[in-house]
Amino acid sequence: MAIFLDTGTLGEIERFHRMGVLRGVTTNPTILFKEGVSGGMKGLEARARHIAKLIAPYPLSVEVTTTEREAVLHQAREFASWGDNIVVKVTVHGPDGELENMEIIHELETRHDIRVNVTAMMSAQQCLLAAMAGASYVSIFGGRVNNMGYNACGEITRLRRVLDQFGLKARIIVGSTREVLNIIEWLEAGAHIVTAVPSLLEGMLVHPYTKETVRMFLADGAKLEAKLKA
Ligand code: E4P
User: Fold this and answer.
1) What distance in angstroms lies between residue 176's CA and the mean position of ligand 1's atoms?
2) Which is the CATH superfamily of the domain at 2-229?
3) Superkingdom of the source (predicted)?
4) Nearest CA owner, ligand 1 atom 9
5) Do 121 and 139 meet the contact criterion of CB atoms below 8 Å apart?
6) Is 89 known to be catalytic?
7) Ligand 1 mean position to 229 CA, how many Å?
8) Is the Cβ–Cβ distance between 23 and 193 less than 8 Å?
9) How far apart are the CA of 79 and the centre of ligand 1, in A?
């Protein structure tokens, strides 16, 4: 069971990595764009190499920016060459349901020895097929599933059961995490990994009553110290 950080921000990755609680990092074009990564492919390469080196041997997922077959293959090989721990993220299908990505996923895993994280999935059924195609990771977007009106926990539990039943190697990543509670509930439901933005990890750790208790210990500790010195 593991937590991946869903960010491209170096400072946040360093901060949580130093605590020893990270087991990987995921990114996507939306996150990197919002975080101001610029300079085209060179800019992406520099950031990805930096993160990959920082968290090695834990995996870093980097998403391709196209659905055109040759370009996906080219980017996937390029990304994978940036570090042994780079996993290439590919959406399960194109914007209009085009299915070429599934062939590419299969090809990358079986012929090019590239680890693939199949992403943007909303159901156990999609994830099962991606796992059968050979994906190393299958990413289901739990928050978006919940927003569609059905509970992501049910999908995660069913998916984990069939992956185990058929001995499929894919690890389940649940992303699109909206609430602190999601992290533990999705791991409990059967996710191998949950991805979270830094603020949610901080929310997991910091508790108002713990703050109050620590303040009490510090105040009484100071009184005790004064008494011992007297
Ligand atoms: C997962 O790896 C994705 O980057 C991410 O969790 C998507 O979340 P969103 O629904 O907040 O865009």
Assistant:
1) 4
2) Aldolase class I (3.20.20.70)
3) Bacteria
4) 176
5) yes
6) yes
7) 55
8) yes
9) 20
Catalytic residue, from 89, 223, 227, 229: name it.
Answer: 89
Residues at CB less than 6 angstroms from ligand 1: 6, 26, 28, 31, 139, 141, 143-144, 175-176, 195
Identify which of 117, 195, 201 to mutate to test ligand 1's pocket (most ligand atoms within 8 A of the CB): 195
pLDDT of 218 reads 98
Contacts for 27-35 with beta carbons within 8 Å, 24 or more apart? 27/51, 27/60, 27/61, 27/62, 27/63, 27/89, 28/63, 28/89, 28/119, 29/63, 29/65, 31/6, 31/7, 32/8, 35/7, 35/8, 35/9
Q: What is the pTM of this model?
A: 0.94
Q: Could you read off the pLDDT tens digit of each residue along the chain, which spans 230 residues?
A: 699 999 999 999 999 999 999 999 999 888 888 888 888 888 899 999 999 999 999 999 999 999 999 999 999 999 999 999 999 999 999 999 999 999 999 999 999 999 999 999 999 999 999 999 999 999 999 999 999 999 999 999 999 999 999 999 999 999 999 999 999 999 999 999 999 999 999 999 999 999 999 999 999 999 999 999 98
Angle between helices 198-205 and 180-189 (to 10 degrees): 90
